[in-house]
Fold each of these.
Amino acid sequence: MGQIYYPNPVKLIFSIIGNEDYMFLEAKVNLTKIFGKIDMESEFQNFDFTDYYKKEMGDCLKQQLISFEKLIIPTKLSIIKHISNKMELTIATNNNEGILKKRKRRINLDPGYLTLSKFILASTKDGSARIYLNHGIYAEITLSFIHKTFQPLDWTYLNYQTFLFINFLNDVRKKYKDQINIIQSSQNT
């Protein structure tokens, strides 16, 4: 019989996609109220890999990744995805005079987490590489840490395969590794 080990806490990451700077700011303010201080932010990259959000959110979309200082328990990911979905709706409603018009969302918030070996994203959609968590939410390993860097998998979306985001997540991993080392050394004393 195998020994049961519980996972370390993980590094919360959010992807934010939108086309208006004030929406990014509003999303970050709302996220920090719930999840605490943001400790790292990527540069923006153009989100021109697909037209998936164009009809709903408009043109000239850009994407940014942010990470949070406070680590989370990985089993909380489905709850966090529900929180971010409600936040998207609240932001859309607040910025459309209380009425959702042609564009349902003004901002897209996708939570995930990073461990030393992988980067995982939450989704409301099932897929061949996704595992059901609970509350209607699935998880997908988006990147694996192999040969000292994050590597895309066959199903990884193009926007997560960019040099910018891979480097950012490698930097987040360094910070996370330091956090885990501090936790483990405090447990050993």
Amino acid sequence: MNIRRFLLIVAFAAALAGSSRTAAAAPTTAALKVGHRGPAVVSLQQMLTDRGYYTAKLDGVFGAQTKTAVIIFQKEAGLAPDGIVGPRTLAALRGPVESSRGLASTAASAAASRLLETAKRFLGTKYVWGGTTPRGFDCSGFVYHVLNACGIDLPRCLDEQFTHGTPVSRNDLQAGDLVFFTTYKAGPSHVGIYLGDGTFIHASSARKQVTVTPIDKAYYVKNWVGARRIPSG
């Protein structure tokens, strides 16, 4: 083998090695998705937080909550809702915050209005343990029926409802958020839909019907567990 051929082979091998290293690094620079970690994800979470889509800790971990926030943003920005932050999604996120907030606010307001109108139709419906129809509801059955009637996918069981969507603090509640309380057992055991203006609608076993209650009522303040914001579908 002459020296020239040897040098060509070495150069080709070096090029392949460099290509492999570039490909391995590409996911963190070309697109962000579930499983990625690091400063780029922190930056993404901050942008989503600035626009009101992400309310959890900026932990630099692209997990389920980050993906949900990305999907909601993509839907409301007219992008393919795949939960992957590629060039188009990143460009939209880097756009003016005011425009993004206005778009999100308009879409969220319309979805919340439909949800609350549907929920209020069932005021006075009797409480029935295990009920999921207008013939009678229990608390999670009422929430399940209302959201699914609005085209929003939600599990039937209360424990699963409590892990759906993204967490919301009591001070940041918006109309349409699900609110959870502990009642007859430890952990979340009662759920309702926040109506705004300090009230929520729920199927109450104590009142034996679907009713509206102040969220600052002492019993519900004492037994507050948390709230979740559910994607509008």
